[in-house]
Amino acid sequence: MPRQIVPLTDVKIRAAKAKGKNSKLFDGGGLFLLITPTGGKLWRLKYRFGGTEKLLSLGSYPQTSLTEARQKRAHARSLLEKGINPGTVAKAQKAEENEQAETFEVIAREWHKKYSLNWASSHSDKVIRRLELYIFPWIGNKSIRSITVPELLACLRRLEAKGTLDTAHRAKQNCGQIFRYAIATGRADRDLTPDLRGALPSYQKQHYAAITDPAEVGSLLRAIDGYRGGFVTLCALRLAPHFFIRPGELRQAEWKEFDLEKREWNIPAEKLKLTKIEKARRKGEFHLVPLATQAIAILQDLKALTGESQYVFPSTRTLTRPMSNNTINAALRRLGYDTKTEMTGHGFRAMARTILDEVLHIRPEIIEHQLAHAVRDPLGRAYNRTTHLLERRKMMQSWADYLDELKNG
C-alpha cells in the first residue's frame, strides 16, 4: 500500500529544522515544502503533464502561507483538468509582471531617486515634474523596451508646439539618461534619443537677463524708487540689488534670521541652492550676508509693517506664507522692463558680480564667496562662512554707496 501522507500544519512547518542536505515535508496532492541546508522553506508542486514529471515553484514560507500554497495547488490542478500546463501559465504571468516592473515610469522614478541626491532640491523637483507633466502621461506605462522613436518624438513635439523648446530639449536629455540607466541595469537594449538628433529645432541656452551697464543700473534704481505698487514689494525691489542673492532666498527671508544690531543676515544652509547631500552635511550652518547702512534703513522701515510676521516679505493674501516667486519679476515688468531680455530678479546677482569685478575691482574670491558659490582654498578645502568677513563687510558697504552714486546720477 502507498504511504499515507499526513497534511502539514503551521506548527510542524515552524518546528522543521534544516539538515545537512535538502529535505522535504509533504502535504499531499504533489505539494511539498523543500527545506534547504541554510534553513530556507520553499513551496514546490510536483505534477505530470504530457507524460513528463514537472516541478512548479509556489513561493516561500512564511511569505506564502500554508493556506495560500494549497490554494495555488488547487488552481494548478484545475488548469491540468483543462489540459493547460500550470508551468506555462506561471511563466507567462512572470513575464507580464516583469514587463510591468520595467515600464518607463518605474525605471525613471528609480533613476531619479538614485541620482537626485547629488542635485539641488529645486533642480530635482523640476526634473521629476517635467517627466510627470510631459512624458509619463503618454509613455510612462509602456515597457521601456517597447517604446518607439516616433512615440518619444510625439511627446517632445507637444512641448515644441507649446513654444517651450528649451523644456523639450531638457526632457529629451532626461529621457536619454533614463534609457542609458535602463541599459546599464539590464532592462533596455538601446537609447532612442540619438535617433532624434535634428528632429527638434536647436535651442541656445540663455542666461538670466541682467543689466550690467552702470548708467542703466542708475536708471533702474531710480525706476524702483518710483514704483507705485505695494510697500512690501517696493522694499524687496530696493533690497535685491544690495543682497544679490537668489530670488527664492530673498522672498523666503525670515525676521529671526536678521540681527540688525550686528548688521548681518544669516541664511540657513537648507535654504541655499545645494544638493541634498550638501544640505545634510551643512545642516545647522548659515550663509552670512553683511548688511550695509542703506539695507538696515530699508529693513527698519519694513519691520514696522511686517515685523510681527514670520516672513520679511509676506504674501499679500496671508502672513503665513512668503510672497510669490513671481512677485519681483512682475514688478519689474510693471516698471517697463522685459524680464526675458532686459532684467529679472535673478539678474541682480549678475549685475553685482560684473560691476564689482570690472568697475570696483573687488577680488573674485570675495565676490564668489558672497554669492554663496563654492570657493575653496589652494588645498581644495571649502572656506567657512566667516572667511574674508572683514573684506565682505567692506565690499557690501562700498557696493551700497556705489549704488547710491549711480542712482543720484
Descriptive overview:
This protein has 409 residues and is an alpha+beta fold. It has three domains: 10-95, Integrase, DNA-binding domain (Double Stranded RNA Binding Domain, 2-Layer Sandwich); 104-196, Tyrosine recombinase, N-terminal domain (DNA polymerase, domain 1); 214-407, Orthogonal Bundle (hpI Integrase, Chain A). The chain is 48% helix and 10% strand. It contains 17 helices and seven strands. It has helices at 10-15, 66-81, 86-101, 104-115, 121-134, 136-139, 149-162, 165-184, 214-225, 231-243, 247-251, 276-281, 293-306, 327-334, 347-358, 364-370, 389-407, and strands spanning 23-28, 31-35, 41-49, 52-60, 258-259, 264-268, 286-290. Strands 1-2-3-4 form a four-stranded antiparallel beta sheet, covered by helices on one side. The chain has a three-stranded antiparallel beta sheet with strand order 5-6-7. A hairpin with a 2-residue loop joins strand 1 and strand 2. Helix 9 (214-225) crosses helix 17 (389-407) and helix 10 crosses helix 14. It starts with 9 loop residues before the first helix and ends with a helix. Mean pLDDT is 86; it is low at 376-383.
